[in-house]
UniProtKB/TrEMBL annotation:
UniProt xrefs under InterPro entries: ABC_transp_permease, LivM-like
Natural source organism: Natronobacterium lacisalsi AJ5
High-level lineage: Archaea, Methanobacteriati, Methanobacteriota, Stenosarchaea group, Halobacteria
Low complexity compositional bias, start-end: 18-41
Chief location: membrane
Transmembrane segments: 75-94, 114-132, 144-164, 176-198, 275-296, 326-348, 360-385, 440-458
Basic and acidic residues bias spans: 7-16
Top-level division of the source organism's lineage: Archaea
Subcellular locations according to the entry: Cell membrane
Protein name per Swiss-Prot or TrEMBL: Branched-chain amino acid ABC transporter permease
Membrane topology: Multi-pass membrane protein
GO molecular function: branched-chain amino acid transmembrane transporter activity
Example of a GO cellular component annotation carried by this entry: plasma membrane
Segments of this protein annotated with the region Disordered: 1-55
Length: 482
């Protein structure tokens, strides 16, 4: 079970946590080591003694590594499957015919349009989810809150647009998007090291504020730097080639991103299925997000990740047992900046533009902090689910695409909408309290989560089932299968 760094005081601090973490205890949501299983666990299974001959175990056997790997990733496969089938399922639900119940009629399509997020909102959730996971990588697993994380998001976004426009020396405007994205991520990694070299001399709220200060310096610089755009306060727009995700320099293995300029496909495999540009971008961006998630998870479940958790639980103890905690923190900060820049690059590639207020501004970090707390700090996947909740709430309370307010205005009879209570009609209540009020209700939900669900959505589920979902879910499924 991952512990939110903001709740240590409430839970009581365990001075031995660093020792138990560094020795392989699964405090990070499932990482274990052979050393924690005792000396016998390191014995070679093939050495049976007394001249016995070991038999090679098939990878597909009951206890083979392939079966174990698939079992441990059942939860991941289910989540990926849900996101893979969501767009076509959403399209089917929007085409359902109305139902006449005699007294009243019910329109399922309008209902699902109001209460399910559209594909464009889910794409926004992918950007925000990856950015929030990169924020959780440093803040949730080392305990150092990076309030200036938007700086790395902005570096990735601006680098993509400037390279595509031919404004970066030594890089042509035809440089493949994947290469440009990785170069921008490396640049953000180096920027994180530079900021961390100063910031990690401080701890607690002082670290958070100095990172915020660095981000605001970059925000003001970009906002007033005429080189990046004719109107730097609005930011540059992508004027070069359409960004493509895939294998660089192989057109047949790449797809263009963008709601309008992206690739679309008609009659796929002769099945009469058309894939729009938005849907193509959804799957391409989702593939990058999945790869980044597994990369961060692999780092967290490595010996390096265990040291990160040891630093979070008891930095002095980690230093005392011989770890150079400064450089571990620097590397963790660099990796978090790397993945934040990839999120920014995806955002700029899909939207076709980047502006200071949507990338470098400190409220971008605030969004990541909010969804990380709602989803669960120190869980990695939790911020992703928190961003799904965030985008769902924004979609439901939005008037741009479906939403609750248009559904009520169109679905309720005039007699109900015009009902006057205290001089205020129900229609006026809808317009004032529902339409476009997602930020208001998200703030209320955030306060409720901090007070009553401090471990977030995924953290609370882990507490409930007694461990990481990926490790416990197969056991629960086996019970029902029997």
């Amino acid at each position: 079970m991952a512990i939110s760094p903001t709740r240590d005081g409430d839970r009581g601090h365990d001075p031995d946590a660093a020792d138990s973490t560094s020795s392989g205890t699964a405090t990070d949501g499932g990482t274990e080591s052979a050393s924690s299983a005792g000396p016998d666990a390191t014995a070679d299974d093939g050495d049976l003694g007394d001249g016995a001959t070991a038999t090679a175990e098939s990878p597909l056997a009951e206890n083979g590594w392939v079966r174990r790997y698939l079992r441990e990733h059942t939860a991941h496969a289910l989540v990926i499957a849900v996101f893979a089938i969501y767009p076509p399922l959403y399209g089917v639900l929007l085409r359902l015919p109305g139902i006449d119940l005699g007294v009243v009629s019910f329109a399922p399509a309008a209902f699902f349009d109001a209460f399910l997020p559209g594909t464009t909102f889910v794409i926004s959730m992918l950007f925000l989810g990856l950015f929030a996971m990169s924020f959780d990588f440093i803040s949730g697993y080392t305990g150092y809150l990076s309030f200036g994380h938007a700086a790395f998001y902005g570096i990735g976004a601006y680098f993509i647009v400037l390279v595509a426009n031919g404004d970066v020396p030594f890089l042509s405007e035809g440089t493949p998007f994947v290469i440009t994205m990785l170069l921008g991520a490396i640049l953000a990694f180096l920027a994180a090291l530079a900021i961390g070299a100063v910031s990690f001399r401080l701890t607690g709220v002082y670290f958070a504020m100095i990172t915020l200060g660095f981000a605001q310096v970059l925000y003001e610089l970009i906002r007033n730097w005429g080189y990046v755009a004719a109107n730097p306060q609005e930011g540059p727009t992508l004027e070069g080639p359409t960004p493509e995700i895939g294998v660089p320099y192989v057109d047949s293995l790449s797809v263009a991103l963008g709601r309008l300029a992206g690739d679309s496909f008609e009659n796929v495999l002769g099945l009469g299925i058309d894939v729009s540009a938005t849907l193509t971008s959804y799957y391409a961006i989702g593939l990058v997000v999945v790869c980044c998630y597994f990369a961060m998870q692999r780092i967290i479940h490595s010996p390096f990740g265990r040291v990160m958790i040891a630093i979070r639980e008891n930095e002095e103890r980690a230093r005392a047992v011989g770890y150079n905690v400064f450089w571990y923190k620097m590397a963790a900060f660099g990796f978090s900046g790397f993945f934040a820049a990839i999120a920014g690059a995806l955002f700029a590639a899909y939207s076709g533009a980047a502006s200071p207020d949507t990338t470098f501004y400190f409220l971008v970090t605030a969004d990541a902090l909010i969804v990380a707390i709602i989803g669960g700090l120190g869980t990695l996947a939790g911020p992703f689910f928190g961003s799904a909740f965030f985008e769902w709430l924004e979609d439901v309370l939005s008037s741009e695409q479906g939403g609750l307010a248009p559904y009520l205005r169109e679905g309720l009879p005039e007699s109900v909408l015009g009902a006057d209570v205290g001089g205020v009609s129900f229609l006026e209540v809808i317009n004032a309290a529902v339409d476009g009020r997602s930020q208001l209700y998200l703030g209320i939900v955030f306060v409720l989560f901090v007070l009553f669900v401090p471990n977030g959505l995924l953290g609370s589920v882990r507490d409930r089932i007694g461990g990481p979902v990926a490790k416990r879910l197969p056991d629960y499924l086996d019970r029902y299968r029997r």
